[in-house]
Automatic annotation (TrEMBL), chain A:
It holds the Pfam family TPP_enzyme_C. It comes from the Bacteria. Residues 51-197 form the Thiamine pyrophosphate enzyme TPP-binding domain. This is 2-oxoglutarate ferredoxin oxidoreductase subunit beta. GO terms for molecular function: oxidoreductase activity, acting on the aldehyde or oxo group of donors, iron-sulfur protein as acceptor; thiamine pyrophosphate binding. Keywords: Oxidoreductase. One of its GO terms (biological process) is cellular respiration. InterPro entries: 2-oxoacid:Fd_oxidoreductase, THDP-binding, TPP_enzyme_TPP-bd.
From TrEMBL, chain B:
Keywords: 4Fe-4S, Iron, Iron-sulfur, Metal-binding. InterPro entries: 4Fe4S_Fe-S-bd (IPR017896), 4Fe4S_Fe_S_CS (IPR017900), Fe-S_Ferredoxin (IPR050572). One of its GO terms (molecular function) is 4 iron, 4 sulfur cluster binding. Residues 8-37, 38-68 form the 4Fe-4S ferredoxin-type domain. PANTHER family: ADENYLYLSULFATE REDUCTASE, BETA SUBUNIT, BLR5484 PROTEIN. It comes from the Bacteria. This is 4Fe-4S dicluster domain-containing protein. PROSITE patterns: 4FE4S_FER_1, 4FE4S_FER_2. It comes from Heliomicrobium gestii (Heliobacterium gestii).
Length: 275, 71
């Protein structure tokens, strides 16, 4: 029921600007449901976004929100978290925003293990600017800047996050909405850098250029091509070939950045009071 | 209003519906249909199993289904 989560939306700003069938709204709903499930204080929760279709989400969410500049959402979020570590800080970002122009901020926030919840809306393309290929476009996929098919290899962004030091990494999609809510919820519980890749569907640019059919067809594609890691662990190799693994991929503990920073501050306070 | 008449469990906010087709394509029991603009209509409300597939996948928050499983 929308009524149960309505308090988290700026309903006077709805309907949103996203195209018919764009899955961004589905993913936003999962984020909000995860926040509600975790019982986070709405006044102590900040949502930061960059620039892109997905990043427009902050305009519709009834929290303290920051709609920042392209690629810099994680940098702004780092500032918010360091200034007041009590806040729950979320980042909403697109595949271009996070992995292209914002790639450096992303890997270093993961390396620092700063307590942010980053949700990447991966629609495999630059939606807002009209369908240019991104570092997450599959090899062979078409974009306005790849009319003959993309010759590059995409990032495996979850593996990149793990390699860079993120302590919680998960992947979900816009068809399996309960799973998406659950993995975002589990990421909130992690004290450190939590990263969720949410497979999104852009029926207008990615879908049309790559003959993916209707918005409903794109969701069905996700249903048929995603396999939860738990299920995959029990299946023979041939049954998982070509599947995209979803669920929690990595969860470890490591010192969190703002806690380490606080320790330094306390040390100096102690030294001063002893002097 | 008589309590004996069962209200359909589905509430639709047509002002927010963009006619994307997701709900009526995914609805397993064909409860939902489309008008000439492609916006959602209730065609066979009695067949609704309250599975909430429509509610969960409407990107525009335009459908709510009361009762049934917790979404
Ligand atoms: C510094 C800067 N460079 C380029 C742009 C143009 N621009 C706006 S959105 C965008 C990419 C959007 O793609 P993505 O982050 O994947 O989000 P989506 O729109 O697909 O959700 C670009 C390149 C910009 N706004 N600012
Ligand atoms: S261009 Fe694509 S990503 Fe952007 S709002 Fe439209 S469908 Fe969504
Ligand atoms: S899924 Fe939502 S926006 Fe799309 S047709 Fe159904 S009610 Fe309308
Ligand atoms: S709840 Fe299920 S059965 Fe009822 S209208 Fe929605 S999709 Fe159809």
């Amino acid at each position: 029921m929308f009524a149960e989560i309505e308090q988290y939306f700026r309903t006077n700003r709805l309907p949103h600007i996203w195209c018919p069938g764009c899955s961004n709204g589905i993913i936003v709903k999962s984020i909000v449901e995860a926040i509600q499930k975790a019982g986070l204080d709405q006044d102590k929760t900040v949502i930061v976004s960059g620039i892109g279709c997905s990043s427009r989400a902050t305009g519709y969410l009834n929290f303290d929100t920051l709609h920042t500049t392209h690629g810099r959402a994680i940098a702004f979020a780092t500032g918010v978290k360091v200034a007041n570590p009590e806040l729950n800080v979320f980042v909403i970002t697109g595949d271009g925003d996070c992995t292209s122009i914002g790639g450096n901020h992303f890997i270093h926030a993961a390396r620092r293990n700063i307590d942010l919840n980053v949700i990447l809306f991966n629609n495999n393309i630059y939606g807002m600017t009209g369908g240019q290929y991104s570092p997450m476009s599959p090899t062979g996929a078409k974009g306005t800047t790849a009319p003959y098919g993309n010759i590059e290899r995409p990032f495996d962004i979850c593996n990149l996050a793990i390699g860079a030091g993120a302590t919680y990494v998960a992947r979900g999609n816009s068809f399996h909405t309960h799973q998406l809510t659950d993995i975002i919820h589990a990421g909130i519980a992690n004290k450190g850098f939590s990263f969720v890749e949410a497979l999104a569907a852009c029926p207008i640019y990615y879908g049309r250029k790559n003959k993916q059919g209707s918005a409903a067809d794109m969701l069905k594609w996700q249903k048929d091509h995603c396999l939860s890691k738990e299920a995959a662990d029990r299946l023979p190799l041939e049954k998982k070939e070509g599947k995209i693994l979803t669920g929690v991929l990595h969860n470890v503990s490591a010192p969190e950045y703002t806690e380490q920073y606080d320790k330094i501050i306390s040390r100096f306070k102690e030294a001063n009071s002893n002097a | 209003m008589s309590s004996a008449v069962e209200q359909p469990p589905i509430q639709i906010n047509l002002a927010w519906c963009k006619g994307c087709g997701i709900c009526y394509t995914l609805c397993p029991t064909k409860v939902l249909g489309a008008d000439e603009l492609g916006k959602v209509t209730l065609t066979q409300p009695k067949k609704c199993t309250k599975c909430k597939i429509c509610e969960n996948h409407c990107p525009d928050f335009a459908i709510s289904v009361s009762g049934g499983k917790k979404s």
